[in-house]
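Subject: sequence -> structure tokens, single chain

Hey, anyone have a minute? Need the predicted structure for the following. Not urgent.
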Amino acid sequence: MIFALRKKNKIIEQKVILLGKIISRLDILKFFSQLAWENKLIHNDKYIELSEKLEEIGRMLGGWRKGLLEKKTPAKVTGEKQ
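Reply:
Had a minute. Here:
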């Protein structure tokens, strides 16, 4: 039982690390898309559409990561001794 919990936590930890890397790359993509827009390489309409989609993806990834972190560290049960 303990081994299964450790393995599950390890998998969750790996997912959290991977999601962190994905979120970082998404931030880089947002930066370069803004840079392209500022240099008039992307039209306003396309930039707005792209940035909205990237923001939505960021919210989804952040929520997924937050959910995994909550699974990894469950809330304490009241009355339980440590």
